[in-house]
Amino acid sequence: MKKYVCEFIGTAVLVLFGCGAAAITGGIPGTLGILGIAIAFGLSIVAMAYVIGNISGCHINPAVSLAMLIDGRMSAKEFCGYVVAQVLGALAGSGILYFIVSSSSSLSIAANGLGANGFGDASAVGISMIGALIVEIVLTFVFIYTILGVTSDPDKSSIAGIVIGLTLAFVHILGISLTGTSVNPARSLAPALLLGGTALSQIWVFIVGPFVGAALAALVFKCLNKEN
Length: 228
Known about the structure:
Structural class: mainly alpha
Strand content: under 5%
Number of helices: 10
Radius of gyration: 16 Å
Number of strands: 0
Order of helices and strands: HHHHHHHHHH
Oligomer: single chain
CATH topology: Glycerol uptake facilitator protein
Distance between the termini: 38 Å
CATH superfamily: Glycerol uptake facilitator protein
CATH class: Mainly Alpha
């Protein structure tokens, strides 16, 4: 049970601080800008990795858990428990963010949102649906492939959290303008459920894309790292 509680807490922190950095500071043209938002997401991973990593592995992302399942590092039962905890944690993080934005006299849900992902008119550059799907597959592949590599070597355990956090930041640097960067179905689902409308109607891309990217990363990793 401790693992699931940790996944709940970690995902809540990731969503609150990552999506919060985007929503509260004005998004891409705001005070933090793309680099600042990307670093907020990355630092959330770094912080949580060194607190809950030794208990749950700090997946805080259903796509990471799927990759670990495919790679044989967790059971199907654990996978289901992790995903439930992650989605609930994301909802908690988004709920807190919703309350913060709603409590401000200068912020509003309509103007600031909750850091939801999107394509078409919901994208800063108007990327198409197919373009968004490909972006999410590619970014998730890079992110998950890095996680699988750095966590497979015990000698790298002391720096794994930093490497993973920096990788999340660097995929956000490219992806924020395109889709808002999901690479995490729970992180995308929570704000979409609270916002509804366009964010909810487009959510399938930010669930399918990360899961496909994660599965591909796990399969490629297994193929290239299997013993001859």
